[in-house]
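Model: Ready when you are.
Researcher: Fold this.
Model:
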Amino acid sequence: MSKVPRRRARLLIALATAGVLLVTGCTGTSTQVDSSLYDSLPDEGGTPVDGGTVTIAMTPGLTPNYIYPYPPSAVGGTTIGYDLMWRALYRTSLEGEPFDAAASLAEAPTFSEDGLTATIAMKDYTWSNGKPVTAHDVVFSFDLLKAAIAESPANWSFYTPGQFPDGVTATADADDTLTLKFETAYNPSYLVSLLQLLYVMPSADWSIAETDGPILDYTQPANAAAIYAYLTAQSSDPSTFATNPLWQVVNGPYQLAAFESTTGSFSLTPNPEYSGPGDARIERVDFKAFTSAAAVYNQYEAGTLTVGRLDASYASKIDELRKKGYNVYGAPAPARFDGLVLNFENTVDNFDKVIGQLYVRQALQHLIDQPGYIKSRGIHSGTASENYSTGGLNSPYPPEFGDEATYPFDPKAAEKLLTDHGWEVDPEGGTVCVRPGTGEDECGEGIPDGQKISFTIASANEPAYVGARDLAFASQLKKLGIDAKIVTKSLNYMYANYGNSYAPATTNEWSMQDFGPFIQTAYPTSNGSFNTGGGFNLGSYSNAEADELMNASTLGSDPDALSAEVTMLSKDLPVLFFPTPDTLIVWKDTLSGPPSTFRSMLKFSYSPEQWYFTEKQ
């Protein structure tokens, strides 16, 4: 067995009871079980048998509705196939490397001494129609990304005005040589993380603005805009995804064979021209849509699923799943943190003024009982770890306070912060501001006399722990006279409608939102998420010091800059931190492959082209 290093001190494994929420702070009673139930990956083994269908459960409530790799923000798109059809220039790795060298389309970049030029050698990959994947395809993809951003900066979640791809020029010096020139030097690790998000598309086949139209010069911005408009229009009709010849030209290991537009389920078959790692022994890969964790578990019970995730509410079923012929592996996903996103622009009940006060955010964080949530049978059942930073667990860029809680669960400390700043705490009648003003012992700028603290929390309907932890938090708030109304929404709805950077019309509909995890790249800067004007700055957090630190971590070369960024943000609380859940991966024990390909599913990265069955299906 391959043992996986992990922080164990805060990990408690407990039997889970689905749907039960036990709250003190929210500790509950629990029966601990051995963490070895799921913290080891099985070794690769068995004799490969060609053929068979792998059936993968998608995240409940999150189904694809788009196929073009860069969906416009207006459609709230979730794309098909992850990166199985179109590979990014570099593929992410969970093995401690900057990227997965074997599965990437290019060699590592080499930089000029001044950092203003990067030269990248392309590998020998082929499109599904037999044409080579070239540096021209990368330039095409880069120019279309610029066209998407020119239409709306919200069209790329990782965009910040004035940063990549602004001030960057991409050219193909030869079919196998890509050159990037920068007006400002980037931190090399950060640049590679951005290029892991640059999906490479076929310039020879997609450089058109109408069906069967002429090939256009995509380096001309007007042509790139027309091409982008055409491709996004073609992607607007899900019923044609599997039949439109555009989408059959892929560089990844799979092509789309079928798509159910009513459910979002889809099927992939091997791309015979794929030249990356893996023998593509699997005949077909079916991704199935589900509406609940219970529905997923029922399919495990029936034995109809090959691969998927296990909700923490079913952690007590791990032994039963093993007896039914499943492997189970779990760990916190690298560069992940779970946070309750705060909306600094919601003006309902002066929420923007209230949440803009750091002492209020500190008080609210003191009301989140991370140890209790972890133990609670109704939330994590032991399958989570405490985390208080944007860098996530076991990060190579830790905050200066390490893994200690900056604002540990302490309701008395929360109450004192409020009373020290002019609030009269009344659990029955509601906590109110009685000393308005901007003095050190007053409520703060824009908060009037008699102001109460009330707000709405938008809570994702799946996974189950999201709603459970939000309820536990609201219960603790009520004890301090703070009124929080929870509104449950689907993940698809939240992704489409709750983000000030791309859906400003709904800014006042949510004060906080909990959609689950923030999944970051191997270089876990929050640039894009918490910098002023960031494309994924959902709650409009803005802090000049934070912007300066994020600029230093992304544009500078100081190895300690990212830790400084993580430290400052984690103390300033652009989000309220929840425990980081372990991601529990389930797959049939008759399915094998390199252990790294199963570990990579912690970050939703699938590699079925490297899997095989050990028994005939």
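Researcher: Now this one.
Model:
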Amino acid sequence: MIDFKKLDRELLKVEKPARYVGSELNCVVKNKEDVDVRFAFAFPDVYEVGMSHTGMHILYHLMNNIENVWCERVFAPWTDMEEVMRKNNIPLYGLESKDELMEFDFVGFTLQYEMSYTNILNMLDLAGIPIRAKDRNDDCPIVIAGGPCAYNPEPLHEVIDLFTIGETEELLPELLKLYQEEKKNGCDKLRFLERAARLEGVYVPSFYEEVYNEDGTISERKILNENAKTEIKKRIIKDLDKSFYPEKSILPYIDVVHDRVVLEIFRGCTRGCRFCQAGMVYRPVREKKPETLVSQVESLISSTGHDEVSLTSLSSGDYTCLPDLTLKLLDLYENKNISISLPSLRLDSMTFDIIERLQEVRKSGLTFAPEAGTQRMRDVINKNLTEEQILGPVETAFKLGWSTVKLYFMIGLPGETMEDVMGIKDLAYKVKDKFFQRPKEEIQGNLKINASASCFVPKPFTPFQWVKQDSMDEFYDKAKSLQREIKDKKVSFSYHEPRLSYLEAVFARGDRRLSKALIRAWEKGCRFDGWYDIFDFNKWMEAFRETNTDADFFGRRQREVTEVLPWDFIDIGVDKEFLIDEYEKSMQQTTTPDCRQQCANCGVNHKLIGGACPHVQINK
């Protein structure tokens, strides 16, 4: 039992007490005596990050709409709060009830970023829950996880009892109903996991064993329980108009990363960028109808009082009814000083008459993502953007009064040369030239071009899942060379920390043998690894050495397309042959058209929706 007086007193000692108090507008409080299942939705990062996650809001309200289920929230305590909790023996608790997590039936983690894995271990430990699944008995909560990083669940196999693969709006209620049935019979954890393993989209790692070849690659996966499936098929929501979406969202007391109404307009992407995991695993595209979206906006604004609506997706400019939707929302909210924003716009899908009107309420800078500085590299990654398609919209934006531009690039892409790297500078300078190559009387504002480069990380279920990653020295050499060459004061350049990207690649493509290093790194004090001011690379290197783990084997090694990959047992709907074809086309610098223009036979519609792809079929 938590001592609330002590908790209140100790919260005055931390930087942001509002992270840990709950009681926000639209949070859900139930009488725990009236519910059968208690679920802690655990976000392994700080409150401000987690509260900006759309998926959390959807699943939180989805579960709380079930009469006999109470879902609460829990976030990773910042280092100051962790110190207070450990010093005063305060266990990690749910924000709504302040009950410790050991009193819950489920602790469910969302896996958004590989560099949050040590936070998962730390949160379990702070809750008094054993970090290894084999050490948890029937009195402990069942620890589950889902999200994009669950598409390679193996590095967490020792920690997580059950993974959900794919979209869970339908799967979670099925799991909770199943658990409720089992709970009436005495809460036998193994029996529940065996029944859960039969559900589509559920993976129980303890029911499998990996066997390795002498060279360290995977030889086979053995099934240890008769209830386990050979292949785990991802779950998807076929009709988003009929799927659950909350009518209200929790309103935080403090500023969060995305402090606005976030409206998901569609899922999936047809662009086929070869580096992009989300573009593959969230296929096929499914759109909501404009009338559905307008109704959802009305409910969310009414319940929160937000003055901004963000229309989100992987590529919002590709939404079929975008002009109709945005104009309808503007007609409804422009006079109320409520702005509409469109993140994730591509340069070749920008409709400036809409964007100009959107930004009449609150004008901001424009963000473009060319990803590569040369046409050769854009063809390699299948960006399907020419230089003219980049500079044309930029020129239009300048004519309409914009003067601040962000440009996102990647370095270390497969086959990249130093000439390609310097192409980033050349393209940024061409953008600058478009601003000044106009009559003086037309130039408005003070030009600012912010170019940034992330380090390429090969991800599962992409055409680049087989390629080696650049070494850290290669990343630093490319980034610093580019930094030295960019001398124009109108153009700034920054780059992502290569050591973080290296570790991200290690865990993105790792297998079960990484779990020992992960646990050792946490024991040495690693947590909040995605936060540069806390990240300790040396401790990670020590953890790899102490557990005899060859991190380069997972992060930097080139794979053969015939190799058994740690995630091969998961079926995302996209054929592996399609990924191989795309990989081979990348080496030939050959592009594949947008799926909306021409079907590339990836297989996802046939497998997951049923029937032929709605786009024109072509021969391979």
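Researcher: Key takeaway?
Model: The longest strand covers residues 404-411.
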